[in-house]
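[step 3/7] fold_predict: job queued, chain A
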Amino acid sequence: MRKVSMLVAVCLIFSLVGSYIPFYENAILKAEAAAVNQMTNGSFEQSTTTTDAAWSGVASPVPVGWGLWIPTGSGKAPNKTVNVMLDRATYHEGSKSILFDAFATSRVSVNQSVTTVTAGKSYRLKVWVKTENVTGIGAYFRTQYYNTSKVGDGPASAKLLGTKDWTLQQVFMTIPAGVTKLVIEPFLETGKGKVWFDDISLEEYNGITGIVLDQTAFSMAKNASVSITPTLTPANAADQTVVWSSSDGQ
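[step 4/7] structure written:
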């Protein structure tokens, strides 16, 4: 019997209404925990004129609960390349958003540390993003895991370029053992243009946040079969239904 070498491309589609693989951008979920936002001032509605050293000379008022990161030579005088501000004219909901207006190539982010996360629990992070003439690497958000020091990187969203109206980006994660803090960081990475962030929420989630297959490439004989075993994260997810499909019906 002639043997054929083939790369198995597996499309795992969860039994969630209109969903993609959960850790992909813009997933729509069915299985989720009660929507209690773990973020402080995720909509940027609360502001203060009391600033720390990072915000000093950059903006006033500033959003409550948010830190600022601008590397030397990128966003502060005498080599200022970006304005960071609360925008009362453009927002997704409420009356404000945070705006990065980079008139020259810049690296800039705001950040918040969430200490209410629990190791072993799963969460969904949602961020609304709007861009205007963004060039460079792009606008996105990233996450990092900490205890007394950094443990590792969490999931990040896709990078947006060009001009896009308000777009929901979201990622899913299960907090690793030993982690006591999740840092969330909306970011403009080495780019120019305008980017707005708004309506940021972090909620507990009881569905699957990740899949690892025991094998993804193998050779098999024609008309033969092979078993592929998925390992799901978290192992105790409430909905563990997996639907398999193939791009090649032959």
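[step 5/7] annotate
The domain at 47-204 is CATH 2.60.120.260 (Jelly Rolls).
The first strand starts at residue 3 and ends at 6.
exit 0
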